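Pilot study result, target chain (730 residues):
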Amino acid sequence: MADAIARAVKARYFLNGASPVFSFSYESPEEAKKEPLELFHLIFDDIEKEILSGDLVHDRFIGIMDFPEIVESETTNAAETIHVFTSVQGMLMLAFPEIQWIPLYRDGVLWSGFEEEGVMTLDRAVTLCSGGYSPLFDGDGLRSVLIERAHAGKYNPEHLNYSRTDVAFAIDEEHNFAALTAYTAYRFGYRAFPVTSKAAMEELLGKSSDGSPVRAIPLARGMRRQQEPYMVAFEDVFLEFPDANQEFNENNIAFGEKRAEHFPMLTTVDLCVFTTAADADEKVFERRKSIADFFKSVHRHKHLSEKRTFSQTLREYLNRFSFNLMGGYWWGYWVINLLEFVTASFLLLFSFLYWPTGFFPLFLLIFIVLGPLRQQLHFLVQKKLHFIPWLVKLNRLREQWVFMPKCYENHYPVAFGSGVKYWEISQKPLPGIFGLRNKCQLPNGRNYNLLFRSGDIRRQYRDVRRPLRSRDVIPSTGNGHAAPGVSLELATLLLHRAEHMKERIIDAEGAIHAAVLASVAVELLNYKSPSVSIEAFKWKHYYEVLAECEFVGVRANLDMKERYIDIHNGMARICRSEATGQIRDAVFLSAMAEMFEHLVSLLDSKGKVGEAAYFRIHSRRLHRKLMSPLGRSILAYPEWVLRSKWHFITSFGVLCIGFLAYCIWQKFLTNGVPPWDNCWHLLYRVVIARDDLPGELATNQHFIFLLARQIAALHLGFVAAYFLMFMNRK
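Predicted structure:
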């Protein structure tokens, strides 16, 4: 063992001083017979000083651990063990996720060349870390093993599983882009490998040392190997690795004919997401002949667009026709949209006027309008309406009829091998963490169901788009609301580190680093110890939003609806252990309001006025619910109107329709049907209604007109406030 550690220390010089190698071993158990937490804090302070003395993000650290029973034993708990060495080292591995830990196993395995090719060894870690790899995103799965075993045997009402068996690769020479895409995959249940150099790409995706076409993915001992992982690759189209030669960069071997030869792992991934800052234009790709040839080889493949709705398919078919007819001008898209709107309106009118003969056009229109309900309609047709043959044929046509616009058909990559199942293109700047997940239809990890309700029908897609309801939350019983003491101590230290990083963050990579620390704290607590869990959950979302705001590679307008749903679901799970009734509701509402205020202050400081207004509206609503019933009823309607422009249009339209119905009832039904100019006379009476007191009005009709005018003026004030909010955005 001494020889192995001596060789490990030499690796420090191999890394040119960029990645220090820590080694921890003890001569005898008597040395650690003091309290485990005391020994842990001594080592923790030394490592933290070493980390803080260097660069916060860009230094890559490697740690060597002796006595690794924690990952070899099937019964050993990561946080509470019978062996003090194992307990301390397990806590260190969880407290420092930015360090690539290399356990020194009982069989002395430290270097590659033994029977288990997939285990992360020291020389492999040295190659990866020297190439820019960051262990923050749990690439080898060691942290997942520890957290999963820390919760083993604990009461788990929602059957949460923290094991990360699925893998993601983020290939980009820009560290911020690689970190953001890797964190997106990590956040939704993947073990992620950021690849920012040719050396790391060859180590992870190239041929194995024995010449076999596929290299084993680094994996910690104890990680599940029963099933093939679902693999996702985020690839930048124009790669310019700093350590690559001129031939690699100019010919772009990653997208050329030698792609499968040099990087066979890329031909076996399940989902390829190509990120590029260039538009889909042939002139752009002509600068690189290999890329142009690669993209022109497209003819048929499974694209994520095969999951698109019938309305999207029809629109793309019409777009293809319009680009052929109009020479590819951009205004052809809007012309076709206008024609589609007119056609749909005509079908609707025809269906209502001639109901017996217009049934089929109406049903076709329903399929077009209700395109987002594709899965529900498919289930309805297949299970309930299967006895109608023409309807089944129409549904099958809707599912399989996929046309690609001519302007795109030469730019969708396909030919990467028979193993690839789906692919997608994402334009830079990226749409944010949740936006990237939705754009690529990135499924959550198969065993990572933190975002799902127990028994949800859509669990197979690992996606929940609506807030968690109170009946979906199962009250916590069993061992109570408190997290294990060691887990609580580790979570507190991680939060302490994350909070102190706030002043040192200068880029998106630093914010993502802090977000990972908060995420590990949330997983350790397992939604127990509500006060600390709420704090960890708050800092997790804070640093995610900070990363999106600090990075210019993220779009200016961020969609906060998905984040709101995630916050709502997480807070509902944290507050599930509180007493039922008003106490739980008060804790939930106050915690949500505090988190929204935290995000509002951050977004305001970064100039994201629209996003801040979104959370400010929800914050006002939560504060209103904490008020008396009288305050709730008075403020509920204005908040609902100001929440969205569609709410305002709906409310104003309903009021107008109601008032006109009253006018029609007063004049058309009581006094006969007058000429159409009498309707304008009624509206004129509304405008010039007298401002007298109700008791002095000549008739009740004057009072109705006066009330209608005041309500209309009130709503005009609402719309003025709404547009003023958008004007303040600039």
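One observation from the pilot: Residues 624 and 632 are 6 Å apart (CA to CA). A full batch analysis is planned for the follow-on phase.
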